[in-house]
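Z., the sequence and structure:
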Amino acid sequence: MTTETPPTSPDTETTDPFVGEFGWALTVLLREWTARIEAAVGDLPYGPRGYSVLSMVVHEEPPNQATLAARLGVDRSAITHLIDEYVATGLVERHQDPADRRIRRIVPTERGRTVLAALDARTRTAEQDLLSTLPEPDRHHLRHLLTQLAKSLPHDPDRCGTAARSLQSPPTLRSTGDQVSGRISGP
């Protein structure tokens, strides 16, 4: 006679966690992180996407609009509107590229740098609050392990772009009979 072990729940601690616990934990954490980041940078026009753009403009070689759009996976016209608004609010400026007069580089203003520094501080606080139930050494270790794992996988080397895409709507699963998203399910 064989007995089956009943499935465990996320709050049941076992030595053999149920299948999917890792994905469940990542999903819960990503949703909570997303909500906290949206709250932290929500007063910036375009919220988290705008934060990614401003961060790229401040921390990297001055990009042009096409580069920003491509790296963030955003339509070029959407970037144009965002940059127009950031120019109007004094966060960035368009400068002619000395190497190619047809290209305009997006350059941060002093105000843009100051705003980003404040948003970075809020983002750090939101992340620290999210991890506050862990002892400090565990927080550091978790960040290290997650970064190490992320770096080990094939990925887009653009960290801002990767983060911006993760904040977009999650993909939906479409179920048809015994197939879910083109994969066979069931026994």
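Confidence is low (pLDDT under 50) at residues 171-187. The beta strands are 92-97, 100-108, 175-176, 179-180, 183-184.

Let me know what you think.
H.
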